[in-house]
Amino acid sequence: MINNSDYELSSGNIFEDLGFENSEQELLKAKLALLINNTINERTLTQSEAANMMGITQPDVSNLKNQHFERFTADRLFKFLTKLNYDIDISVTPTQNQLGHIRLGIH
Question: I need a labelling partner for 55 at 20 to 30 A (CA). Which of 22, 71, 96, 99 fits?
């Protein structure tokens, strides 16, 4: 039997749980980087081929593949996705809460 004091429930955002200042932005970037990595893998692209498609260097692709996305802005990750043949639709709506949230829906 697990004692409730042995663990803490997640907020649903690991970056928030770890105390990152911009936790929603970090979660967004992680999700975008994961989509980029999945696309590279599904298309069986080499890192060089992916770099050429996205207009970046092979070491940058390596950083993305290894989840080192801290030096990439969300805007830059969006641009990589458009170069990988994705459309980006952004929707802004009023919130019912005190603070708004960033959510990413991938279809």
Answer: 22
pLDDT at 1: 47
Domain membership of residue 79 (yes or no) is yes
| Residue appearing with tokens 């043949």 | 85
Angle at 107 between CA 45 and CA 96, to 5 degrees: 135
Domain region containing 41: 21-83
CATH code, 52: 1.10.260.40
2 confidence band (pLDDT: 50, 70, 90)? low
- Is pTM beyond 0.90? Reply is no
Q: Is residue 54 part of a domain?
A: yes
**Residues 47-80: b if buried by 16+ CB within 10 A, e if exposed:** beebbebbebeeebbebbbeeebeebebeebebb
Q: Is residue 70 part of a domain?
A: yes
